[in-house]
Amino acid sequence: MEKKIVILPGDGIGQEVTTEGRRVLEKIADLFGHRFSFDAAQIGHEAIAATGQPLPDASLEKLKRCDAILFGAVGHPRYDNDPTLKVRPEQGLLKMRKELGLYANLRPIRLFDELLHASSIKPEILKGADILFFRELTGDVYFGEKGRKDQGNTAYDLMVYQRYEVTRIAHMAFQAARTRRKKVTSVDKANVLESSRLWREEVQAVSQHYPDVALEHQFVDAAAMKLIQQPRSFDVVLTGNLFGDILTDEASQIAGSMGMLASASVGDTVGLYEPIHGSAHDITGQGMANPLASILSAALLLQISFELKQEAEAVIAAVERTLQQGYRTRDIADGGTAPDKILTTARMGDRVVEQLEQVANALEKLPRA
Ligand code: NAD
Question: Which residues form the pocket of ligand 1, taking CB atoms under 6 Å from any ligand atom?
C-alpha cells in the first residue's frame, strides 16, 4: 500500500512524541511491505513564531492533500498566562478541525492489564473496562458566539448545536456499538440546557435505526461520577464537545495516564490522529514524555484511515509486550518499577520498535527479500 502521511508535531512534547509515532509507522511499512511517505507541517505556537498564523495556509494545503495526519499537541505557557493575546495556538487546532470537516473525535479508553496498578482507581473496579468515546468536535461553546459586554464585566460563550451535527455523529456511535457490546450511553445536560434537549431528541430519533443497540441517557454530572464508580458499565459514550473534553480527561485515569490515550478525529475528509494530552511544557525537552499515546494514535491511523487491521493490532501487541516486560516511562511507573526499567521517550520508542519486529515475525508477515 502507498500512502502519504503528514506529521504535525506542534508544540512542547508534541515534537518528542510524534518522532516515536513516526518511527513506528516507518517500521510497520518496512515489516509489512508498505510505502509510506512523510511530510511535516507547522501548527500552534511554532507556526505563530514562524509565520504569525496558528495554522498557515501552507500547512493547511499539505493537510488537504495527504492520506492521514499524525498530530502532536499545541500550546505554550506564554498564551496560558496571557488571555489577552489575540492570536493563539489552539486557534490552529480549531481551524484545522473546521477546515478538514473533522466532526467526530473517537477516544478508545483501553486499559492494559499491566497498568492496573498505575491508576488511582482500585484495580478490581477497573479490570475489564473498555470504553469508546465519541466526542462531537465542531459545535458547542467552542464555536458559538462569544464576547464581552457591560464594559467587559460580563462574558458569554453560546452553547449551540444544530440537528445535523448530532445526527451524523450519533450514526457513527451506533454503528461502532454494533461491533462492540451494543450499548450507547448518550451524555448531556438535558435537565437545564436547550441544546442538550435537541441533542437527546435527535439521539433518540437516530437510535430507531439501530433496534439491536441499547440506548441510555445520562446527565453529565452523573456520568462523571459513574465513570469512576462503575467504568465497566460503559461501552460507547456519545457526547458533545465540552462534556467530551472534560470526561475523556477524567477517563484517562482509567488508562493510568494521559500519556496512554490516543484519539482519532474523523469526518468528511482526511483523518487526524493525536494523543489526548497537551503540550506538557512542565516536562518538555527532558525525555520524560510518554510516547505510547502517540504510538497508539499511529495504530488508530493504520486501522481507520488505511484499514490495515493486522498492522494496527501488531502495534498494540508491541505496546502490550513492552509493558509486560516491565518497561515504563515515569508517568506510568509505580513503586514496584525497577529503576533501570524507567525509560526516556526515545528509549520507550526503541523498545516498541523492537517488539514490533518480534510480533511481525510471529505473524510470519516479514516480506521475503
Ligand atoms: P497537558 O495534557 O499538556 O498536561 C497535563 C499533565 O499531564 C502535565 O503534568 C503533563 O506533564 C502530563 N502529561 C501530559 N502528557 C504526558 C505524556 N505524554 N507523558 C507524561 N506526562 C504527560 O495539559 P495542560 O498542562 O493542561 O496544558 C498544557 C498546554 O497544552 C496548554 O497550553 C494547553 O492549552 C495545551 N493543550 C493542548 C491540547 C491539544 O493540542 N490537543 C490538549 C490539551 C491541552
Answer: 13, 17, 73-76, 80, 90, 93, 258-259, 277-280, 282-283, 289-290, 293, 331
The residue out of 255, 280, 301 marking a domain boundary is 255
State which amino acid sits at residue 297.
S
Q: Quick one: pLDDT at residue 255?
A: 80
Please state the rounded mean pLDDT for residues 166-188: 97
- Closest ligand 1 atom number to CA of residue 93: 40
Answer whether residue 115 is part of any domain: no
Q: Over the stretch 272-284, which tens digit does the pLDDT of each residue have?
A: 999 999 999 999 9
What atom in ligand 1 is closest to the CA of residue 44? Answer: 40
* Index of the ligand 1 atom closest to the CA of residue 277: 2
Q: Catalytic: 189?
A: yes
Please choose, from the candidates 10, 165, 21, 6, the residue with its C-alpha nearest in 3D space to the C-alpha of residue 92. 10
Residues 6+ apart with CB under 8 A from 31: 314, 356, 357, 360, 365, 366, 367
Strand partners, 185: 216, 237
| Domain hosting residue 351, numbered range | 1-110+259-369
Q: In terms of domains, do 233 and 198 share one?
A: yes
Q: How far is the CA of 292 from the centre of ligand 1 (A)?
A: 14
**Separation between Cα atoms, residue 216 and residue 296, nearest integer Å:** 29
Domain shared by 245 and 264, yes or no: no
Same domain assignment for residues 59 and 154: no
Protein residue with least CA distance to atom 12, ligand 1: 280
Say yes or no: 127 and 248 in one domain.
yes
Quote the mean pLDDT of the chain.
94
Return the residue whose CA atom lies nearest to atom 8 of ligand 1: 280
